[in-house]
Write a structure and sequence with these properties.
By secondary structure, the chain is of the alpha/beta class. The chain folds into two domains: about 35 residues; about 260 residues, Alpha-Beta Barrel (TIM Barrel). It has eleven helices and twelve strands. α4 runs parallel beside α6, α4 runs parallel beside α10 and α8 packs parallel to α9.
């Protein structure tokens, strides 16, 4: 390699000396080691995209677009969501629930991933705030895809139980019966988002404890006859993605894990991850279906070593 560089780039290396050869050899070895270590690191990294949505709107319905309805930063169209979910189903993604994620990737000791899931790409799809659209717009999509592919899609709904059924909210909210219906059908993984969507870092310890405890109590009361193992409200997504050490300490009393909103993918490498600082990808109207698919597909190296090309619908 050194001789090749000298021959091809004589203006940089001539006259060549033994000292120059040693320096070049050292830098080439260093560069090769750096690249190899990065490649190895990426290969052994478990990368799981966790997508965080909010309200789903039907942009073909005049009542759901301006001026009849104001835009919100977290809006995402039903027309873009459906092909994204269908891409994931068609490409055999494993739709993780929060308990799956905890058991197989966070717990100590972890459960062994079942053989049928081991080689499948992984994803988590989450919807915050308990907006009514998870029932009116999302649930029909999930049922349609189940009928087409004979596969159940599990989505996480992080709910503020203090707003359940509230008609005076800026965005209409689901009620308890809506949640029960989606849960009974096997589509909803119902988890906490705080009682009243407070910034948990800016309230008193007493108020913080109420936000955490009361939300868990109400969500479990809504589903108590359907959830004997109390999986509901075992995990939380922090409102506004806001968290600090005091919130960590309080959350640990009630919940097994906590989810951020930091627009990063979750990556599992050598060291145990912080189960109360789980990264999520923020989704809004600026994200096209193709962009979400690219985020779900993994980094360039994972694509190269993948067993087959994904199906683009």
């Amino acid at each position: 390699m050194v001789n090749f560089l000298v021959d091809k780039l004589p203006e940089y290396f001539q006259p060549i000396t033994i000292r120059k050869k040693r320096i070049i050899s050292f830098f080439l070895a260093f560069l090769l080691t750096l690249i190899s270590s990065q490649v190895i690191l990426e290969i052994i990294t478990v990368e799981i995209p966790i997508f965080g949505f909010h309200d789903i709107v039907d942009i073909q319905n005049p009542q759901e677009i301006p001026p009849q309805r104001r835009d919100f930063p977290g809006d995402y169209s039903q027309q873009n969501l459906e092909p994204f979910l269908e891409y994931l189903v068609a490409n055999n993604y494993w739709f993780l629930s929060t308990q799956d994620f905890y058991d197989y990737f966070l717990a100590n000791p972890k459960k062994i991933v079942p053989a049928e899931y081991r080689d499948r790409p992984k994803v988590m799809i989450a919807f915050d705030d308990g907006n009514q659209s998870i029932y009116t717009h999302l649930l029909p999509i999930l049922e349609k895809l189940e009928n087409k592919y004979s596969q159940k899609i599990k989505v996480v709904v992080f709910v503020n139980s203090g707003f359940l059924g509230r008609p005076d909210s800026l965005i209409k909210k689901v009620n308890c019966q809506d949640l029960r219906d989606g849960f009974q059908k096997g589509f909803y993984d119902i988890q906490s988002h705080g009682l009243n969507h407070e910034n948990l870092t800016k309230i008193s310890i007493k108020a913080l404890d109420r936000e955490l405890a009361e939300d868990q109590i109400r969500l479990r009361k809504c589903t108590q006859d359907l959830d004997p193992n109390q999986i509901v409200a075992s995990h939380i997504a922090y409102p506004f993605g806001a968290v600090n050490k005091q919130v960590d300490k309080s959350v640990a009393k009630y919940y097994s894990s906590g989810y951020l909103y930091d627009s990063l993918k979750f990556k599992l490498r050598f060291f145990p991850p912080n189960k109360y600082r789980i990264s999520r990808l923020t989704v809004n109207s600026k994200h096209s279906t193709k962009r979400l698919i690219r985020l779900a597909s993994g980094n360039w190296l994972h694509k190269i070593v993948g067993k087959s090309a994904p199906k683009i619908l």
